[in-house]
Amino acid sequence: MRGNFSKITKMFSASVVAAGLLASAPARAADDTIKVGILHSLSGTMAISETTLKDAMLMLIEEQNAKGGLLGKKLEAVVVDPASNWPLFAEKARELISKDKVAAVFGCWTSVSRKSVLPVFSELDNILFYPVQYEGEESERNVFYTGAAPNQQAIPAVDYLMSEDGGSVKRWVLEGTDYVYPRTTNKILEAYLKAKGVAAEDIMVNYTPFGFSDWQTEVSAIKKFGSAGKKTAVVSTVNGDANVPFYKELGNQGIKAEDIPVMAFSVGEEELAGLDTAPLVGHLAAWNYFESVDTPENKKFIADWHKFIKNDKRTTNDPMEAHYIGFNMWVKAVEKAGTTDPDKVIDAMIGVSVPNLTGGYSTMMPNHHITKPVLIGEIQADGQFETVSQTPGLVMGDEWSDYLPDSKDLISDWRAPLSCGNFNVATGKCGGKGTN
Amino acid sequence: MILLRALGLTLLFLMASLLPSNAAEADLRAIIAKFATGTGFSATEAVVRELAATGDPLVERPLAALAEGNLYIRKADSAVFVGTEAGDSVALLDPLSGEKSAEAAKADITKIKVNNTLRRVIRDALGTLTLRAKDPTVRIAAADTMFKTPDAANIEPLDSAIAAETDANVKALFEQARAASVLVSERPEADKLAAVALIGARGDRDALSLLTSVEANSQGAVKDAATAAIGSINSSLALWDAGQNIWYGISLGSVLLLAAIGLAITFGVMGVINMAHGEMVMLGAYTTFVVQQVIRTSFPGLFDWSLVIALPLAFLVAALVGLIIERGVIRFLYGRPLETLLATWGVSLILQQAVRSIFGPTNQEVGNPSWMSGSVDIGQLAVTWNRLWILVFALGAFAVLLYVMKRTPWGLQMRAVTANRRMAASMGIRTPWVDALTFALGSGIAGIAGVALSQIDNVSPNLGRGYIIDSFMVVVFGGVGNLWGTLVGAFSLGIVNKFLEPYAGAVLGKIVVLVLIILFIQKRPRGLFALKGRAVEA
Fold first, then answer.
1. Distance, CA of B388 to CA of B369 (rounded, Å)
2. Interchain pair A253, B382: CB under 8 A
3. CB within 8 Å of A408: residues ≥ 6 apart
4. Are B263 and B471 spatial neighbours (Cβ–Cβ below 8 Å)?
5. Residue B16 has pLDDT above 60, yes or no
6. Is the pTM of this model over 0.80?
7. Considering the domain boundaries, does residue A182 fall inside one?
8. Structural domains of chain B, with CATH
9. Nearest by CB: A273 against B69, B208, B363
10. What is the ipTM score, two decimals?
11. What is the CATH number of the domain that holds A250?
């Protein structure tokens, strides 16, 4: 049935294409493709992380076209460069939606860039797929969050460190870069740790500026904090570029993972690529995907990626998997809705389930977050992560943290009767306020 | 580290082979075989403990291999091997004898997983086994582990090791490790008091950590003695902390000096607001990367020399680019600071994007030569080699630049052109060429700074961005046009910054420094060492 149907659509669209070509080729050509916007920085500070995601999206779109496109039409990628400039993200998003008439946008990395495009997406009613782990405390009708919420990364990571396998950690250093994601995550973690009975003097919170490169004082402060006779661990929300000098300093000052492990939330395969990892073996990271995961889906994905990028040294990482999941969900939802009209697709997205790369299925939940497994990995000498712990089942993304007083009563459900991103269960009203 | 361990292993192996052949070898093999049957970390841990309990020095090879993730199980027959990777296949060695027995494809074997807890258990187990190793560094490492993980069961092996020890240093460490173990044992109070005194005399952070837990877990005289010892350690550590802050400040100062020294020429001497200065540093770092890449693929033996080879090349690359920028853009804009600022800003963006297109946006790995890795302890102060070398290098670069400026004819011409361009021109100096070469010199110096900075920072297209503001800050603070001012400015900013950081945090510390500089510039607009004379006003 389905095969027949798609054959018919294909024939139909082919004849439309033919007719279009006969009539006025250039003018109609645009209507015969579905445009997909890619909003990732290709220059400036964030290019280091975001360029890879642009390439991953181009690969996914190429593969989908090889499979026959979507709704009988070819997909066409529209790539713009917001140049790591937050206001420019909003401008470029507007350009993608109003001028290029894209059906959906895949993009953003930093939380501040996401916040800057939110008004554009709700005003022009389009869809954004956001692939990066973030601080939560947000649920928008027009945004689908395919990265991890804090409870899909930070909380299980801390649980692991507290467990016997993780070393029964009693003292905590929360080290972060000074911006919204680390600050909110650390606020949640601090509340969580205190709820677990950790005393205030056993938690040290410290922030450093973006791109910080002189870690001597911080690392020796960690060393000092760790010499109080209790097992100590560092939970690091240090972002991007600052990580390499941080880890180099840890190695130079002889802090070994057996003594003070560092659990990172923003360090993936890509960040380790610029680093000699031999002194870092045993330090940890929490993600929903590692390149080393041994599943047939992942093997195929890595092989495709190496072929596409023509370099078999390039690594894959968690946000790439998030785009893989998000893109496949969008394709499935469009097929289900039979149209690319954003309103219909947004409704069709909820409940869509697609395979992830770690051997299971991820499902889009009514709060526009997805279900994922949480993996804890240890850095290996070859720059890869070895999974040492995995949550038994899938974890559902929780947008409003249960550990913050402002957001613990809030829930989000974008299905028809409720249709609200911040419903307060205590007052029974839509429009509660989170910490942001 | 790996080398040391390997050395220790071979020594042990030699010792073991000299002993009469061990009848228990079959038993050991039986225990090792259990690695294949158990699943999960706790099962592996049980096997490790069983192996360690045999006390046989032969178990060191499989345990050390396990800790490094080199112990494999062959899927076909569940046999356990030590593996060494060789390309796509893995050479399988016998876990006890270390003789090569087979080879296997990676798909046919599974690695026995280890985590941090297991690594710690193995390290402790190896500690007791290596007390009699021939190499003193291995014995020191053993003493260190046993000190950090005291156990009453360690006292006896330590006693016999102390009796047999000939090296005074190692003996002292063994005695400290023994004292640590005494504190967690059921020994009489007098022993414990002696132990507290011994550990208190050690006076470092590990001693502090141990005594803190002793203080929490004991009563009476031992608790009081521990409290007193903690107090005296803390007060001596406070002194060391101040020393450490000064060292960190000097080290940060040397980085600032390196970054700013080229700018002291282009901005300080020539007065060009050069926003592309950071990109010259970046080009130097990328030159280092390319040099290392060539060495890695063609001459692996030369790796330790890579930085020395990169230095002149980085100078030439950056100087050449600087020359092109001066001839192509800046010479048309002398005397128009605003346009220069915009033009060089544009040039910096072009350079960044060019590097991004050629090398890709991701970080490139620049390795540390062996003489720049690790650290040396001076008292309680850990001085890392790479920081020390960068300090030496920064001062060296400064001295060379000073010599060029003050003692060579070229330097004289440069200063003459800066002091009075028209007079210099009428004396027969070709001022345009002096301008071009001066700019090239400043850029080249920035290039060699990039070689040094590649050792401590990311080598990415954004490298220069992180240094441009700091560089201007140093030059303006020190006094425009004065090389000594740059030196003093860099070190004083570095030290102030590092003294503020522990109290105010890195973010606030930086803000405070900026506010202080603004106030200072209000008071003394020409910086620390202002140039005097008519020329400055012109």
1. 14
2. yes
3. A400, A401, A402
4. yes
5. no
6. yes
7. yes
8. 2-122 (no CATH), 130-218 (no CATH), 241-537 (1.10.3470)
9. B363
10. 0.80
11. 3.40.50.2300
